[in-house]
């Protein structure tokens, strides 16, 4: 891993630059608060013409909440760990897209592309091995379906509690498994031992795991957006297991100082901790 200043040498703000940013643990603190310094650095890049693209495991509604906090609109975002690429806001310069059902989000959000899958077999395996986990299933047509209640504030948008056999819909985009009695690494080990096939999975900073369609990741989503906007250089900043692919994909991958050790091997350099405005340090260095 190189020094941050060395890794960022030659990267400059402007229309040729795409900046892929994770939300939780990168832009936002783990209590979901936002530093004014980080917000200002992001908006300074937007003003300079850089393509700031949120790349998150969050749903459309959760992404909208973060964009509102930052003050971003008229932009693309990679949501649900790459399963959905969406255009947020009414900017006429965004590519033609499909409106989102108001049952999912009541905001001007349109879909650029979405990847769906059938995770029924994987959910059955997980519940057989880990019966105490809570599961949330997102889709393109209905509110997020829950096998058990999640703590207040952990999920954004509309949710509905349903029997396990009604969790999956034909247009499922993401499955979230929450295991509060386990650490992140314990959950990753347990899921890996199940030998799930046909899906991608990644653990966040807590005992929270996402399943996505095979071949789908934040990196794949950012590559798609790069083609749309025509950026020549890329930088990505993240902190969790679902950021590994995009850190490796970017010309410069920067991992946050609050990341797990196993995530750091995918990055070129490391920023300070999120509590120390690590993202702002990165963005200010290339303005």
Question: How does this structure look, described?
Answer:
The protein has 287 residues and is of the alpha/beta class. It is built from nine helices and 15 strands. It folds into two domains: 4-115 and 217-285, 3-Layer(aba) Sandwich (Rossmann fold); 119-211, Hypothetical Protein, Haloacid Dehalogenase-like Hydrolase, Chain: A, domain 2 (2-Layer Sandwich). Helix content is 28%, strand content 24%. The strands form two sheets. It has a nine-stranded mixed beta sheet with strand order 5-6-4-3-2-1-13-14-15, sandwiched between helices. It has a six-stranded mixed beta sheet with strand order 9-8-7-10-12-11, with helices on one face. Helix 2 packs parallel to helix 9 (278-285). The longest helix has 13 residues, at 36-48. The protein is globular, with a radius of gyration of 18 Å. The chain starts with a helix and ends with a helix. The mean pLDDT is 89.
Give a short synopsis of this structure.
The chain is an alpha/beta fold and 287 residues long. Helix content is 28%, strand content 24%.
Please supply descriptive tags for the structure shown above:
2 domains, Rossmann fold, Hypothetical Protein, Haloacid Dehalogenase-like Hydrolase, Chain: A, domain 2, 9-stranded mixed beta sheet, 287 residues, 6-stranded mixed beta sheet, alpha/beta
Strand percent estimate: 15-25%
Give the name of the CATH architecture of the largest domain.
3-Layer(aba) Sandwich
Arithmetic mean pLDDT: 89
CATH topology of the largest domain: Rossmann fold
Number of separate structural domains:
2
Main beta-sheet annotation = 9 strands, mixed
Instruction: List low-pLDDT spans.
Output: none
Helix content: 25-40%
InterPro entries: HAD-like_sf (IPR036412), HAD_sf (IPR023214)
Pfam family, one: Hydrolase_3
Organism: Trueperella pyogenes
GO molecular function: magnesium ion binding; phosphatase activity
């Amino acid at each position: 891993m190189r020094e941050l200043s060395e890794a960022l040498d030659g990267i400059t703000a402007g229309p040729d630059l795409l900046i892929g940013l994770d939300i939780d643990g990168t832009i936002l603190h783990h209590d979901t608060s936002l530093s004014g310094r980080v917000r200002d650095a992001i908006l300074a890049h937007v003003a300079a013409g850089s393509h700031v693209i949120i790349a998150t495991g969050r749903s459309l509604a959760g992404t909208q909440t973060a964009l509102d906090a930052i003050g971003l609109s008229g932009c693309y975002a990679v949501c649900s760990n790459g399963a959905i690429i969406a255009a947020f806001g009414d900017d006429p310069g965004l590519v033609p897209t499909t409106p989102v059902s108001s049952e999912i989000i009541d905001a001007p959000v349109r879909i650029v592309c979405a990847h769906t899958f059938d995770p029924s077999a994987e959910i059955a395996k997980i519940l057989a091995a880990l019966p105490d986990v809570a599961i949330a299933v997102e889709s393109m047509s209905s509110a997020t379906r829950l096998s058990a209640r999640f703590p207040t504030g952990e999920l954004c948008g509309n949710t509905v509690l349903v029997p396990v056999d009604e969790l999956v819909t034909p247009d499922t985009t993401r499955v979230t498994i929450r295991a509060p009695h386990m650490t992140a690494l314990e959950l990753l080990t347990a899921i890996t031992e199940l030998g799930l096939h046909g899906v991608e999975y990644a653990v966040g900073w807590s005992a929270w795991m996402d399943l996505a369609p095979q071949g789908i990741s934040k990196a794949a989503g950012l590559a798609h957006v790069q083609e749309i906007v025509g950026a020549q250089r890329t930088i990505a900043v993240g902190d969790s297991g679902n950021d590994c692919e995009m850190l490796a994909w970017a010309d410069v991958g920067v991992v946050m100082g609050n990341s797990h050790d196993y995530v750091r091997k995918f990055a070129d350099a490391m920023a300070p901790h999120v509590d120390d405005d690590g993202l702002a340090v990165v963005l200010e260095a290339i303005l």
